[in-house]
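ubiquitinyl hydrolase 1, pasting as requested.
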Amino acid sequence: MTVCQHFFSADELKGDNMYSCEKCKKLRNGIKLCKVMRLPEILCIHLKRFKHEMYFSSKINHFISFPLTGLDMKPFLVKDFHRLDPTQKCTTYDLVAAITHHGNVGAGHYVTFAKNYINGKWYEFNDSWVSEVSDSYVADVEAYVLFYRKSSEEATKQRQTFFNLLKDAQTSEFRYFVSKKWLTKFQSCMEPGPITNSDFMCRHGAIHPLNMERIHDITVPLPESVWKHLVMRFGGGPPATMLNMCKHCKKALDELERRREHEMETFKRLNHDYPANDNVDMYCISMRWFKQWEMFVKGQEDDPPGPIDNTNILFVKGNAKLVLKSNSDYGQLSLETWTFLHDIYDGGPVYFIEGEKESEEEKQDQEEQEEEVQQE
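Structure tokens follow.
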């Protein structure tokens, strides 16, 4: 607790360490204070055991006592933390693991201590050796990293009520489905939050087509009594009594696949017809945007990219003329391909490199050569 109090204590900013005020743009005396807005389910406290200075480094071997149970973080929270997160009620923690370091800065060995949540006993993990240790042994180690987990008697009672209701229910009563992801949080976290069946349900209240193949892997059937108990305690939802695929999402998904196929096939055809010579204009496109489009049409991204954005490959000169940046990552498209993509996505700006134009003499020579070939 002393370490936490020191970390969260007010720090005066004065002298060479004055505060630069963003309003008056001047250096002012001030006070820097850290407060926690939301507590995590697992609290990791990393103690500074290594001191690094300009010419050498050293290890800090001071013993620091730490509680095995009942670490209360409420004094270090902002005053209105309940308003910021009404679901945040638990502020106490119990130690579940610790890491120690033996040796010095240049060389050493790490040993881990972890509590078995089934039998409540502590174990030491030293490479391939695992041995049971006492609570007092853990409390006396030179801790380097401490892992605390939220503790709540109310959460333990809620889980026990859940298992009792589940045990008393009949198999025929299992008519409601709940997200396995949320149920895992309920079984392992002190504050799981509202039920999130949106993990597998779409906005229409049915099952998204992409979730159908694994629907029984991401849901858990529950009896009505258990479902009502969980909703009354945690809220959330929506309720799911059937696992039917959503027709609306299926239609939208099919349309999206047809769009992907159309864009990809049209691009391939236009790109195949693109003449490989220097006499045509080359339209430049940012490879950053193009790669996003490519990931979309290949099904690696769900959403299409935004408008074409060539701003990262171009800059504006003083005369408002667009100039291609040197060493910029861009691709070259024909007018037809550029027009195809631009008609769909809009954006820009448009920039092309003019092709080399043939002189009249070169054209005449080319025509004469073609006539000679035909005569032969």
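Note for the archive: The first helix runs from residue 2 to 7.
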